[in-house]
Amino acid sequence: xxxxSDIEIAQECVMDPISAIAEKAGIDEQYLxxxxxxxxxxxxxxxxxxxxxxxxxxxxxxxxxxPAGEGKTTxxxxxxxxxxxxxxxxxxxxxxxxxxxxxxxxxxxxxxGYAQVVPMEDINLHFTGDFHAIGAANxxxxxxxxxxxxxxxxxxxxxxxxxxxxxxxMNDRQLRNVxxxxxxxxxxTPREDGYDITVASEVMAAFCLAKDLADLKERLSKIVIxxxxxxxxEEKPVTAGELGAAGAMTALLKDAIKPNLVQTLEHTPVLVHxxxxxxxxxGCNSVIATRTxxxxxxxxxxxxxxxxxxxxxxxxxxxxxxxxxxxxxxxIVATVRALKYNGGVAKAxxxxxxxxxxxxxxxxxxxxxxxxxxxxxxxxxxxxxxFPTDTKAELDLVAAxxxxxxxNVCLSEVWAKGGEGGIELAEEVxxxxxxxxxxxxxSYELEGTIEDKLNAIVQKVxxxxxxxxxxxAKKQAKKLTELGYANVPICVAKTQYSLxxxxxxxxxxxxxxxxxRNLKISAGAGFIxxxxxxxxxxxxxxxxxxxxxxxxxxxxxxxxxx
Length: 562
Hints:
Shape: globular
Strand content: 15-25%
Distance between the termini: 19 Å
Number of strands: 25
Radius of gyration: 23 Å
Mean pLDDT: 94
Number of helices: 20
């Protein structure tokens, strides 16, 4: 008898009305804005009505992703249900999936097995329309830029120096580089342009870091869209505020900024809101959703995208720095299979016991553990996402190596058992949340040069030798410093598959150099984006995209979504 698919499990679930989930979370019905029977947005007036101390903040992160899988979101959701089974009052706060990966290679991002948020089809597809609103706001700004130039260009914008790109929430490599404005003067000014995926847009980043609607409007007004005509020493940045676009952009986002309430298969409340990519942007759900979950629950379980070198680093160095949040505990997810893959085992052979390969791959996990404990000085636990092929000897080896760093290992069986399979992990998380987290620190200080901050990330978090800026990046660093943007956080865009900027370097490489080829200010988000390696802001579809396997019958029942 084969396993049921994620979508089959989700479709068999009898969901509670979202009003019942809201009641469980302590949300009065007057603060709900219903999107059908099983989804709702939460009014921004709710926080003014809640008079209770914040709960404990639990961050879930992982080792670098591999084709063998890690199960970070599945573990997060299973942990939420396990805490509920132990009599606690948790509220989850996770990201919305992008349709690009859903139809591409990754599939959905609503968990898996018996640790899912539902309705998973809605969450993985259009949901409540947040991403469409973010894309519309992004593209409204793009339209206003080109219209301003067409209508006389009062701001003296140099079309060759426009850095704002249009976006779409789909993997479409054909749009990476385009020429637009063709057809003669009535149709615009021809120029080289391109598209980003919506989750890489600065609007998405600003949206997820904003504390409220007024703060979002202020952030949008600061977005740098390009530069004026003139020599390098004379050109000035032009902002969305100067174009007069911030008000209309915010109007498009006034409903999207409200967090979305859904439920797990076990009817535990979860907020799903925002979704910047972690290999391009900062990879965390919205500050508004996280703060709301902290105010509503005893425990807020949230996650950061991809490996801890990307998602957790940005959660801690960017999101926590800007919001004042401080995790009480960190969960680092791994699988024995993924660690063996890091140790050189081919995907087809991962089901076989191989202690030698496991020991060679373990340094990847141990590096992330050491970072959380020694760089950021936070309590942490390792969650091994269980597979039936894991052997006792392999699990014992992982536990022994982590124990040497003073970190416990818990077996997580939430995919197969739901919350019941996460009880051991939940008990350890509860214990860790009572430890002292007052020593929490960042991996770098804001003072100093852009290169200083990049070197700190590369050396402390990645384990490399240094960051090396190309000639072009050095010019950009000098320009950004002159414009007063030097003392902001750094958001490194790099491959998720390695601690380095080379996706083929598995495990825990050392003495490598990370090449920074481009530096761009995201003034609305409040950080500098450093592009490294071959990272792209518009992914492409694989040879066999997941879209080929997704279908819907005459009754509207979706199949093939995972």
